[in-house]
Design goal:
Radius of gyration: 19 Å
Number of strands: 10
Structural class: alpha/beta
Length: 339
């Protein structure tokens, strides 16, 4: 994996596809690494774009080079890292998709550089446009780890057992048995980066005003908070059984976007959408990035190998007809395109 030195960072990244092709930037989430996109990249490249996948600060081979550089992880500074990488590579206009942390970094890119970001996809984590109000108790309970890290004892526990902390979220946020331990161990090597705990703790403290954003990113963090809507063509990907950001927590997402917009519900998928159903993620991203954005359409995506009708039937049996009908009515119009 190549690296570039930009400011106080050495950024590792993957660069696939024709150099002259339209560029798609893929930003990974937490607790994860850039390999989350491994099964998404090949079909995206086959669809035409050049795909760039950086490793975020504090993860894997991306390293701080100077002691004086703040070990920060707010989404605005992640966006600034990404724009610095693209500047280094001579890339002006681009499209971007982000998962989890990457979703909010992608959103910040669209806010800070609207003339450069032409299309946007956010996976599994809702936008922070207009600021982050204190969540209702039900959602705060799902986000217990945010508040845990806001305490010094909690932060120290994360420093002492980073893998145990990350593993718990892999177990809790998606259906039982969705991953094997060998996969987690491979990904968890990215958490051995010496600055992973500091970047992680800062990221969560900063979003609730328990820490300031990186000084270099304050202007962008403020701009995200001051921005109410975005007009860039946008796709939001929602896991049906996401254990931390379920559909009930993303009802307001459509109102954040004034341009072409669609939501995709991935049936049977939890929080780690690019890993749990990479084929569906790649297909929907390819449509966003290569087709007319006016054709964006909401969709309920069945699990792999299952027809949409069968998927909906299972949902009706499990959740009750009224609950499933309400979910679809509130969020999605069933796409009539063939998948």
């Amino acid at each position: 994996m190549p690296t570039v030195t930009i400011g106080g960072l050495e950024i590792a990244y993957r660069d696939e596809g024709a150099p002259e092709a339209p560029v798609v930037l893929l930003l990974h989430g937490w607790p994860d690494d850039a390999s989350a996109w491994n099964e998404v990249v090949p079909p995206l490249v086959e669809a035409g774009p050049r795909v760039i996948v950086p490793t975020l600060r504090g993860f894997g081979a991306t390293r701080f080079l100077a002691e004086e550089t703040p070990r920060t992880g707010d989404s605005a500074i992640l966006a600034i890292d990404a724009i610095a990488l693209l500047d280094h590579l001579g890339i002006d206009r681009f499209m971007v998709a982000g998962h989890d942390w990457g979703a909010n970094a992608a959103e910040a890119l669209a806010v800070g550089w609207p003339e450069r970001v032409t299309r946007l996809a956010m996976l599994s984590t809702p936008p922070r446009l207009g600021g982050m109000p204190t969540p209702p108790f039900e959602q705060a309970q799902r986000q217990w780890y945010h508040w845990f890290m806001a305490t010094e004892r909690g932060a120290q526990a994360v420093r002492d057992d980073r893998r145990g902390f990350a593993h718990l979220h892999w177990v809790n946020w998606s259906p039982k048995g969705w991953f094997d331990e060998a996969t987690f161990e491979r990904v968890a090597r990215a958490f051995d980066n010496p600055d992973w705990p500091a970047v992680t703790i800062h990221s969560y403290r900063a979003r609730w005003d328990e820490a300031d954003p990186d000084p270099a990113s304050r202007w962008l963090a403020d701009k995200v908070e001051d921005t109410r809507t975005l007009s860039v063509p946008t796709l939001y990907v929602q896991g049906e059984v996401d254990g931390v950001n379920p559909p009930s927590a993303t009802k307001t997402v459509p109102g954040k976007f004034a341009g072409p917009f669609a939501m995709v519900l991935l049936s049977g998928v939890g929080h780690f959408a690019p890993r749990e159903n990479p084929a569906a993620v790649a297909r929907h991203l390819a449509r966003l990035f290569t087709e007319d954005p006016a054709m964006l359409a909401d969709a309920v995506e069945p699990p792999p190998g299952r027809r949409a009708g069968a998927s909906i039937g299972i949902g009706l049996a499990l959740a009750g007809a009224a609950a499933t009908a309400a979910l679809i009515a509130n969020f999605y119009r069933l796409s009539r395109t063939s998948d």
